[in-house]
């Protein structure tokens, strides 16, 4: 009897141990499978860009997020001179895209770029008038007429510097009712009817659609604006920054920029 009891006990113990061993094996396999399917860790790429790049960079930003799961592109749009000062003063940024060589030089002279900047696009000024051009504006010189309410960019931002360069080249002095902090604000004065005309970039007129009418003038070619881009030194996301710059300067970026009216460098 004792022998039978002992055999049964041992058999039962083996079954219990076998059951525990099988459970442990299954649990390990499940854990490994779950770990393999973990989603990418969220990361944020911060891009400081000139206001005139808003529509184009928003489009490129969405494409970059699609190509890089888990990445969010956060843009800071403003006048290039303001952005340059923010970066020099330590604002956390991964990429800086300026609307002039001069404002980029502010950043490179301060030694806060990881590598020399690359010019990725060009732009020229155009007169933005009310739809239908009710004031009959046909030239840059017309903007000096006393019957016109004209707005321009402030001289410290690229679109304002370009305006001053054209004034010097033509001998025409404008008397604007306001000098705006960036090109988007200048355009807004016209689209809201607070000005008869404004000097903005041709790309801004295109982006505005039918809310304004663009009037080209030959003197604009005397103040072509370069757009340089660079990775910021000590960027929080240096690898993503390099990828974004490569996208902007590569085929995808160039096609998008040209479709928006930008020129090629």
- At CATH level 2, the architecture of the largest domain is 3-Layer(aba) Sandwich
The largest beta-sheet arranges its strands as 2-1-3-10-4
Strand content: 15-25%
Largest sheet: 5 strands, mixed
**Overall average residue pLDDT:** 89
How would you spell out the order of helices and strands? HEHEHEHEEEHEHEHEEHH
Please tally the helical runs, counting DSSP H or I stretches of 4 or more residues.
Answer: 9
Which structural category fits the helices and strands? alpha/beta
Number of domains: 2
Gyration radius from CA atoms, angstroms: 30 Å
Overall spatial form: elongated
End-to-end separation in angstroms reads: 98 Å
**Helical content class:** 40-55%
Number of strands: 10
Unreliable spans = 1-35
CATH class of the largest domain equals: Alpha Beta
What is the CATH fold-level name of the largest domain? D-Maltodextrin-Binding Protein, domain 2
The CATH superfamily of the largest domain turns out to be: Periplasmic binding protein-like II
Pfam families: SBP_bac_11 (PF13531)
InterPro entries: ModA, ModA/WtpA
Signal peptide: 1-18
Organism: Pseudonocardia aurantiaca
């Amino acid at each position: 009897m004792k022998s039978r009891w002992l055999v049964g006990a041992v058999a039962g113990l083996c079954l219990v141990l076998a059951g525990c061993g099988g459970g442990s094996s299954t649990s390990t396999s499940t854990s490994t499978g779950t770990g393999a399917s973990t989603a990418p860790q969220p990361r944020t790429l911060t891009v400081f860009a000139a206001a005139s790049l808003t529509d184009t960079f928003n489009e490129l930003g969405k494409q970059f997020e699609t190509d890089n799961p888990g990445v969010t592109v956060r843009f800071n749009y403003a006048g290039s001179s303001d952005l340059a000062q923010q970066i020099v003063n330590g604002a956390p940024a991964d990429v800086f895209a300026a609307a002039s060589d001069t404002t980029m030089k502010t950043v490179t002279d301060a030694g806060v770029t990881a590598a020399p900047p690359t010019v990725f696009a060009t732009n020229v000024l155009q007169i933005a008038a009310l739809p239908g051009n009710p004031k009959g504006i046909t030239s840059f010189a017309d903007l000096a007429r006393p019957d016109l309410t004209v707005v321009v960019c402030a001289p410290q931002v690229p679109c304002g510097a370009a305006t001053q360069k054209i004034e010097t080249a033509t001998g025409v002095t404008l008397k604007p009712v306001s000098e705006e902090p960036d090109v988007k604000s200048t355009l807004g004065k016209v689209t809201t009817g607070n000005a008869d005309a404004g000097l903005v970039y041709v790309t801004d007129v295109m982006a505005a659609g039918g809310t304004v009418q663009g009037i080209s003038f030959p003197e604009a070619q005397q103040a072509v604006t370069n757009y340089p881009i660079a990775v910021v030194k000590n960027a929080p996301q240096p690898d993503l920054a390099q990828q974004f710059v490569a996208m902007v300067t590569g085929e995808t970026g160039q096609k998008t920029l040209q479709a928006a009216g930008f020129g090629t460098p």
